[in-house]
Design a protein that fits this description.
26-stranded antiparallel beta barrel; Immunoglobulin-like; Maltoporin, Chain A; 6 helices; mainly beta; 928 residues; six-stranded mixed β-sheet; single chain; globular
Length: 928
């Protein structure tokens, strides 16, 4: 390992310190007028391979930096002019090559359409867009788009399928510029075939308002657009797959698409019991959270220090733990109804069932009386989710547009859970214990809609928008809770309860914005926002005694709250060719009016609070030449306490964990600063991304905990002075062309200082983590393989106590290989080695995961594929999560999918329709 790192260091040193030259000059026409946006190329003299590139500015000037000494040709091209070629001569004793004034001559005649047969450039820069030619990055047969993205320089795909470009998370994936099953990027990356893609376009999408008004507001959204091959746009394409395996494992999947000009129609369907998902997992996460709150009368308390010191999962390896059964399917459509009206929408359902067995061991760091807690839990739950959305975008005329969106979802959820919790004392005796059985079921309905009207005045730069957003949420749940409690120092007890809870939340937001030009591309934006949030909840808890149910007045309550927000803001905007600046501030008034009815008290309790906050903001973006960008963002955020946090009422649903609200809470106030720098060199395919983020919160809301002699925990939200987190991230990627390889390095450092409160004593806590990774990939036509190493170290330090520092050191090593042989055969293997290590608690665990497959293509144009796969060959059916925060270290051991073998058949629907077949050549049309 040391030798490898030394070799890598030498390579980087050679690359970094080799002498570089700059090539500069001016491009003019035959009348000496400047030619802006002319393309400037530095090419290898022997084969015209692209080395570096640039473009001229408004004055026709250019400068191409970072050129190593060699034998190069210089080329300038501009539409309507003959291209200019010249050999580059490098001077002695200087680092600048001055090409002087270059005059382009108009083309003497118009040429007809020309067809050029050859290979496309693997990457092209078009202003703010990086465009990859998909055909230059080979994937295995029947691979999804996700596998194609892993091959692209600067693009990262993690174990969960989340896509990042140069370190920034991709938030949207479109197909031919259209939404694909809403905003979930994984719907496209996991379900569309890679061989249907012609180009992958990566860009920072401007906000809808900036696109309409033409005034850059500095807001960006990292977006990938998948441009289909021409032959895919007028035919049905996709694939169907079915497989069966040992241990009753099965998998079936279908993706069928019909795209033509102005219309898109897609169908997705899947069913499996191998923990495989073809969509984002938000619905299941929401389901889990909802079930925790339902808990059959049990309130699940976060035993950490609240939002300011959340637990940090370490080294999960991207495994989906537990045993999951999934059925899902849906339709997506896009239709250009008229020249002015575009409609798109989708419907999708998924039915998830998961069984989890979990063992938890927790070391309580600051509680000397209760140093250890153990828990064994089994859980069986399901979630049936329906969701649909529709968008109508109507371009009324050149000055006005109307956009209407609507989305709704309906969930049916159910869960059964049993657990055994033991709290141990210093001499390892049991202080208290609980045996709990609970079940919950219910339904959740969500509706969201919005209307956006935009008007562009005839005066350039004057712009107005009016928007209205409405949402509604209804949640009805029923559950039972059965617990046997034992104590070392007091009498044992039992709890038998049934609960019913209904909640209803409605939101209305109205906003208006007006932009006025100040001249010289300067603008003043004024805006006003009004928001009303109405919440109602009714909770009834009954004690079960035999066949009778008696209302438990102390646990039953009803409340309603009304949050009213008024925000008035003013922003100054400055737009230039290379940069834009936004400076502004808003004044926000928040009114909270709440009423709580307690069944064990006469009358009601009122909560009436007013909050006033000044919210400044600043954004700055600077675009350098050659696709390099610097961005700065500063914003302030106010987090008001929820009605539950403000209720001064004890919730004793679980006598071992009591929750009490705090009516004296005030909002927390966060300052957030983020600085990003990224660059991508299309000539060398090198990429770099760096980020610095600082978040400082005053009056932070944390969970204060007090623990008595029987280890009964009482949690109350309180304000503390501060919470500060500083994080940095950087990655660098570059190819080694002679070895057909690519190296990637990444590093991340995070430092968090917060305050935890235990038994009314504040403790300063510092949590520092550092991680690094190195990746190597090799790619030839028939052989691809990759190596990866990730190391994470985390230290938790307590400033005001004698508690020892806690240190984690966790590692992941991985390798993957794919080999194609005898034209039709393909072998694939992946190996992951997950290592969990904590010297403080003498915990050490390693999990090796080995998967392999062999496949053969057959039928006409290789449309069919038969695949035999072996999953988890070493049969490690255990998953591990490690979490730490200011008050405890926790390790979870969960059941996971064991070894199985599967035989699958895959059929590509349209390969026999593809007139191009498997021809690797490309036809480039040049219009003159």
């Amino acid at each position: 390992m040391k030798k490898l790192l030394l070799l890598v260091f030498l390579i980087i040193s050679h690359v970094s310190f080799a002498q570089k030259y700059s090539v500069k000059g001016r491009v003019l026409d035959n009348t000496d007028a400047a030619l802006p946006s002319a393309t400037v190329l530095v090419l290898q003299a022997k084969d015209s391979t692209l080395v570096n590139f640039g473009a001229t500015d408004l004055q026709g000037a250019f400068e191409v930096k970072g050129v190593s000494k060699g034998d190069y040709l210089f080329k300038v091209s501009f539409l309507g002019f003959d291209p200019f070629f010249q050999k580059i001569l490098f001077p002695n004793g200087a680092t600048v090559v001055d090409m002087g004034a270059i005059k382009l001559q108009p083309q003497s005649k118009q040429l007809k359409e020309v067809q050029v047969q050859g290979e496309k450039s693997p990457v092209v820069i078009k202003k703010d867009t990086i465009e990859f030619n998909a055909g230059s990055f080979k994937t295995q047969p029947n691979a999804a788009v996700e596998e194609l993205l892993k091959k692209l320089p600067g693009v990262e795909v993690d174990a969960e399928g989340n896509v990042s470009m140069q370190g920034e998370k991709v938030q949207r994936v479109t197909v031919d510029g259209k939404e694909f099953f809403g905003r979930d990027p994984k719907m496209a990356t996991k379900n569309l075939p890679a061989d249907a893609i012609d180009k992958v376009q990566v860009f920072d999408k401007k906000s809808d308002q900036a696109t309409f008004s033409g005034i850059d507001d500095g807001q960006r959204e990292k977006t990938i657009n998948l441009q289909l091959k021409e032959e895919k746009r007028n035919n049905a394409f996709g694939s169907v797959m079915a497989g069966g395996g040992t241990d009753e494992r099965y998998q079936a999947k279908a993706s069928i698409n019909r795209f033509k000009k102005g219309q898109q129609l897609s169908f997705l369907g899947m069913a499996n019991n191998i923990n495989s998902q073809g969509f984002g997992f938000d619905e299941y996460a929401n389901f889990n959270g909802g079930m925790s709150r339902m808990g059959g009368g049990m309130i699940v308390i976060n035993n950490g220090s609240g939002g300011t010191a959340n637990g940090i999962p370490i080294n999960t390896g991207g495994r989906m733990n537990g045993l999951m059964n999934t059925q899902a399917g849906g339709l997506n459509f896009n239709n250009q109804v008229t020249k002015k009206l575009e409609a798109n929408g989708s419907y999708f359902f998924n039915n998830l069932n998961q069984t989890i067995s979990k063992d938890v061991e927790r070391d309580n760091l600051l509680n000397a009386g209760n140093p250890r807690t153990t828990e064994r839990t089994t859980q069986d739950g399901g979630n049936l989710n329906h969701r649909g959305n529709v968008t109508l975008d109507y371009k009324i005329d050149s000055l006005n547009s109307l956009k209407v969106t609507g989305a709704l979802s309906y969930n049916e959820i159910a869960q059964n859970q049993s657990s055994r919790i033991n709290n141990f004392g210093t001499n390892d005796q049991v202080l208290n214990a609980s045996d709990t059985r609970s079940n919950s079921e219910g339904n959740i309905f969500n509706l969201n809609s919005s209307i956006l009207f935009r008007h562009r005045f005839t005066k350039p730069g004057r712009f107005m928008s009016v928007n209205a957003d409405m949402s509604a949420n209804q949640n009805d749940t029923d559950g039972t809770y059965d617990s046997d409690l034992t104590f070392a120092n007091r009498e044992d007890s039992q709890i038998r309860q049934r609960n019913e809870q209904a909640s209803d939340t409605r939101n209305l937001t109205l906003g208006v914005s007006h932009t006025e030009p100040l001249g010289n591309r300067q603008y003043l934006e004024s805006n006003y926002t009004y928001r009303a949030n109405l919440s109602e909840s009714n909770r009834e808890v009954y004690d079960i005694e035999g066949n009778s149910n008696t209302l438990n007045a102390s646990l039953s309550n009803m409340y309603e709250s009304l949050y009213l927000y008024h925000r008035l803001g003013l922003n100054y905007k400055l737009n230039r060719q290379k940069y834009n600046l936004t400076l502004g501030t808003s004044l926000q008034q928040s009114d909270l009016n709440g009423e709580v009815w307690l069944r064990n008290m006469d009358g009601k309790q009122n909560i009436d609070r007013d909050f006033y906050n000044l919210l400044p903001t600043a954004r700055f973006n600077y675009d350098f030449a050659n696709n390099r960008r610097l961005s700065f963002n500063y914003e302030t955020i106010v987090q008001e306490p929820s009605i539950r946090q403000l209720q001064p009422v004890a919730d004793i649903s679980n006598p071992l964990n009591i929750y009490v609200g705090n009516e004296n809470l005030i909002p927390s106030y966060m300052h957030q600063v983020r600085l990003n720098y990224n660059s991508f060199d299309a000539g060398t395919l090198r990429s770099f991304f760096g980020m610095l983020s600082v978040m400082h919160t005053t009056n932070a809301i944390v969970s204060s905990q007090s623990i008595d002699e029987n280890s009964i925990r009482t949690t109350t939200p309180v304000n503390v002075d501060y919470n500060t987190m500083v994080s940095t991230f950087a990655n660098y990627s570059y190819p080694i062309k002679k070895l057909n390889s690519r190296l990637h390095f990444g590093a991340n450092v995070r430092d968090q200082n917060t305050i935890s409160v235990l038994n009314d004593v504040e403790n300063d806590v510092n949590v520092r983590s550092a991680s690094g990774n190195i990746r190597y990939s090799y790619q030839k036509e028939n052989l691809n393989f990759g190596l990866r190493a990730d190391i994470t170290a985390q230290r938790t330090k307590y400033e005001d106590t004698n508690q020892n520092d806690q240190l984690f050191l966790n590692k992941t090593y991985a390798a993957d290989a794919n080999y194609r042989f005898l034209k039709h055969y393909n072998i694939n293997a992946t190996f992951d080695y997950l290592v969990y290590d904590n010297n403080a608690t003498n915990f050490n665990q390693a999990i090796p995961l080995l998967n392999a497959s062999i496949s053969r293509q057959f039928l006409k144009n290789n449309a069919g594929e038969l695949k035999l796969s072996a999953t988890n060959l070493l049969d490690r059916n255990t998953g591990i999560n490690q979490t730490t925060n200011a008050l405890y270290i926790e390790r979870e051991t969960l059941n996971s999918l064991g070894q199985y073998y599967m035989l699958s058949f895959i059929y590509n629907i349209n390969k026999h329709l593809n007139p191009m077949g498997n021809n690797s050549g490309e036809v480039i049309r040049i219009m003159r």
